[in-house]
Model the fold of this input.
Amino acid sequence: MIPASDFDMGCSDLDTNCELDEKPSTHQQLNSNFYIGVYEVTNGEYSKFTQETKYKTEAEILKSPDTWKHCHFIPYNENSPVICITWNDAKAFTNWLSVKENAEYRLPTEIEWEYSARGRNRSRYYWGDSFDESYVWFKKNSMDHPHPVGEKPPNAYGLHDILGNVWEWCENDYIEKIPKNWNPKSSTSGEKSLRGGSWFDTELQLRVSSREFAPPNTRENHYGFRVIRTNK
Done:
């Protein structure tokens, strides 16, 4: 469980690698506890969803050769994070899980994601300011593909691969400048935020404050997701 708290979100003033959309840091409030997936959603879990619902991803509807079952050159592994799925495909999974478990599941907002990744820690990475590749899958050690979840050490909340492996879709629409006490919004059309960096990226994109965004129908071989469960 991630406890309700307040924290400073965004890039530390001491970090010389800040991008414009990471600064200035802003004070944020999390008013409720929530639960977040220890791991990114895997191919095996997504397969169970599609088998039960007969859901077709956007790539499958378009008859693309690159789907979550065969994404570009990436080898399929049941325990690796599902990739080549859009934000819409990820939302379909959380909607199914909500009904199945009679609970509220969704994607994390950027506020929820960043606090889950760092807590009140202000360092570049959840383990400190100096990069250490033993904690993450990234460009130099990934062998050009994502890896089975849980192979790298967890952060303080017990979350694996919160940095690296795959970028994680967030619930909210992307905005460039994050205000104090932000109340993130989500629509079906706005560009969506992603967090965490991936196997495809350098250590600069794996800083906790690093941000990515894409239209909700985008699919990439380094985009995936994890889910949260709220107490509502």
